[in-house]
Amino acid sequence: MADLDSYRVRIDEIDKEITKLFEERMNVVLNVAKYKMENNLPIFNRGREDEVIQKNIGYLENKDYSGELEEFYNDLMEVSRNLQKRKMQEEEKAKNAEVIKKSKVLDKKNNGDKKIGFFGVSGSFTEEAMLKYFGNVKNPKAYDEFEDVFLAVKNNEIDYGVIPIENSSTGAIAQVYDLLSKYEFYIVGEQCIRAEQNIIGVKGTKLDDIKEVYSHPQPFAQSTEFLKCHPEWKLIPFHSTSVSAKLVSDLKEKSKVAIASKRAAEIYKLDIIKENINNQSQNTTRFIIISKNLESDSECNKVSVVFSIDDKAGTLYKLISHFAENNINMIKIESRPMEQGTWNYFLYVDFDGNIESKEVETALNLIKQNSPYFKLLGGYRKNI
Questions:
Q1: Cβ-proximal residues to 223 (8 Å cutoff; 6+ apart), any chain
Q2: How do residues 199-248 score in pLDDT, each as one tens digit?
Q3: Crossing angle, helix 66-102 and helix 46-59, to 10 degrees?
Q4: Is residue 307 annotated as a catalytic residue, yes or no?
Q5: Choosing from 170, 205, 241, 285, which is the catalytic residue?
């Protein structure tokens, strides 16, 4: 019969092999972390972890150890997640520190040779927001789709892109939030515009002539009360309000109108048939300015971040409490489903503060430590 010492010797030999395999596993874990960072994927994937546990339980010859093996792998994967978090946070912190050090806020009214693009065509609310934010812009580029603006920034066609992100009556524009997590860009500014929606058409058009109405889905949603009064009208979603106005101008038919701005009516020489049809008289759209580079200084007073949460009781409360504990006022919180996993969400948070302040740094570091995924979206000047 073997004695205790021989058992311990064998355990030491096994532990040595386990340590080698542990180190090998951690090296692969870091490669996985790198891939996740490059592809904006969350650290935690419950489906994958459950699959790993069940697969390895299947390898057991003695099923009596199933519970212990499950506990072992749960602990091992928690260690792996924590390593990924630590490395991702170290890289993110170093990246942010370098970016902040190099960042310089653009003199938006003296933008020189900077290339600027916007969603829509001439006459859109987005173009209006661009002009209000930047002032005179030389040869701005127009894009038909939201993602086209992001791709233009990615491919260096433009230095800054202007896109709508939320409206006071219809809320967030979900696709834009999803694009913010997909692309590694920063919000460097915002501009709010009163979005007065109008029925516009070719000269001489009357309400009784109308059969088809073209516009972006947002103006339809912002003008439901007025449109309910005309159930006979066919509502046709289009790329943007300005593109709709251009189409109506080109078609030259009294039966076809657009919902768009007064500026669009002026540009495309259309009559305003009915003005300010939106549900809210103070209907306002917030636009953001995106760039590859972070631009922030001591005068910036608004911060945007995105992070995910573990699927555990109390996690959301714990993360959100870091704002209150550091006397930070949250302005907005928006949730969007993640591509991977069911009922997993990204949380987008806007709050008052400056990214270089001690309170903000403390709160964000605590959130990073307890979140599978975190990204700073930008620090910029609030537009009220």
A1: 197, 259, 277, 278, 279
A2: 999 999 999 999 999 999 999 999 999 999 999 999 999 988 999 999 99
A3: 150
A4: no
A5: 285
* Number of domains forming the structure of the chain: 4
- Residues contacting residue 112 through CB under 8 Å, at least 6 positions apart: none
- Write down the catalytic residue from 119, 287, 307, 346: 287
Is the alpha carbon torsion for 238, 244, 246, 250 positive or negative? positive
Q: Is residue 8 part of a domain?
A: no
In this structure, are 211 and 350 located in the same domain? no
As beta bridge partners, residue 287 has: 164, 191
Considering the entire predicted model, what is its pTM? 0.72
Tokens of 102: 């190099």
Residues 25-68 pLDDT 10s: 999 999 988 887 777 676 777 788 889 999 999 999 999 999 99
Closest listed residue to residue 339, CA positions, set 37, 45, 38: 45
* DSSP 3-state of 333: strand
Q: What is the span of the domain harbouring residue 115?
A: 109-195+283-295
Give residue for tokens 């009294």: 254
